[in-house]
Amino acid sequence: WAFPGGSQQGLSRRPFLWTSKDGARDLGTFSAKHSWDCASVLLGDGRVLGDSAGHSFLWGTESGMQDIGFPPGTSGARPVSANDRGEVLCRAAKLVENSRGGVASLGAPFLWAEEGGFTALHGPAGFDDVRPVGIAADGTVLLHATKPPDRTIRACYLLRDGKLQSLSAPPDWSSALYLGMNARGLLVGIA
């Protein structure tokens, strides 16, 4: 990300797009109130997705920055991955009261598409914090899930055609954390 004026003072950042032809191009912001913008997903056609103050945005050379909002019942959303079918995987935040009387932000996976907007994805039963990691070309989604109360119980799942598949650890290992997925559906992680 870029800090206007070359400084982190004032804690503002702006999204940019770099090309070999033009170098870094400032993508702008919604308004002066939104000073912590982030570009996070680059689509195959050169458009950029990101977030600004909890609102997801879509930026294009012709259209500029467009607010695509966030899913109903959530406090914000951030694009994390996309595929060439135009499906954008987003992590939405749901604010809930925690056991200490404070507020916790729990993850919820959503797909966004220009036609249809946001669609909720279901996670595994018993897990209240489900975070999307990646999406393959065929729409398969990699998810991380944690359980209350201490969030130490973590599991990884694939969501394919509406069905969840639990991902196990490699042979001779007791646990695994899957960290990424490419367009072909290949997974990487640590054990």
Strand content: over 45%
Distance between the termini: 31 Å
| Order of strands across the main sheet | 3-4-5-6
Q: How many strands, which pairing sense, and closed or not: the largest β-sheet? A: 4 strands, antiparallel
Helices and strands in order:
Elements lengths: L15 E4 L3 E4 L10 E6 L5 E5 L2 E6 L3 E6 L6 E7 L5 E10 L5 E11 L3 E4 L8 E7 L5 E6 L7 E7 L2 E4 L10 E5 L5 E4 L1
Antiparallel strand pairs: 1-2, 3-4, 4-5, 5-6, 7-8, 8-9, 9-10, 11-12, 12-13, 13-14, 15-16
Word description of this protein:
- By secondary structure, this protein is mostly beta strands.
- The chain is 0% helix and 50% strand.
- It is built from no helices and 16 strands.
- A hairpin with a 5-residue loop joins strand 15 and strand 16 (187-190).
Summarize the structure.
The chain is mostly beta strands and 191 residues long. The protein is built from no helices and 16 strands.
Q: What distinguishing features does this structure have?
A:
4-stranded antiparallel β-sheet, 191 residues, globular, mainly beta
